[in-house]
């Protein structure tokens, strides 16, 4: 099927988003074209404003309007506790829990040789510098529970060992309200390993 060139360009742009295939890109394009022009202009302005006003914090690497970000500049946060995450969106997710009050460090990826991401592409020198400057007491590794995340966590643990910092890994396991019968073997294994005393 051949679409008019402006429509095909719009579909192609949507296809560049992660998780959006051709069918979804078509649906989004037709939806956007069915809306009033003002909504399309508003969307375009929001994208441009976000690109123009947001940057990465020079200290932790999180998205922010001001540098340093609100987490790094908050004196009430625990200054010797660091949580390493892969992406800025992970910071927002952890903040939503309301249970973490330390500092963050965003790697902007995970070790993935197949994707050309080695230690040099991650923000590891900045992490080592921050840990040394703040005399960190604990480093929580909150990378994703997959091959890349596990490899990244293991690499960082070895990297910071000479700094005599306590290194912990967040526990992984069953979601609240989940049934054991629906959990896969790896999830059950991690739930058992991450158990704690009651």
Structure explained in plain terms:
This protein has about 200 residues and is of the alpha/beta class. The chain contains seven helices and six strands. It has helices spanning about 5-15, 20-35, 35-55, 90-95, 125-135, 145-160, 185-195; strands at about 55, 65, 80-85, 100-105, 140, 165-170. α4 links the parallel β3 (about 80-85) and β4. α1 packs across α2 (about 20-35). The longest helix is centred in the N-terminal third of the chain and has 17 residues, at about 35-55. The N and C termini lie far apart (about 60 Å).
Task: Give a concise summary.
The chain is of the alpha/beta class.
Give me some keywords for this one.
single chain, 198 residues, alpha/beta, Helicase, Ruva Protein, domain 3, Dna Topoisomerase Vi A Subunit, Chain: A, domain 2, 2 domains, two-stranded antiparallel ribbon, 7 helices
Show the helix and strand layout.
Elements: H1 5-15, H2 22-34, H3 37-53, E1 55-56, E2 63-64, E3 78-85, H4 88-97, E4 102-106, H5 124-134, E5 138-141, H6 147-160, E6 166-169, H7 185-193
Helix pairs in contact: 1-2
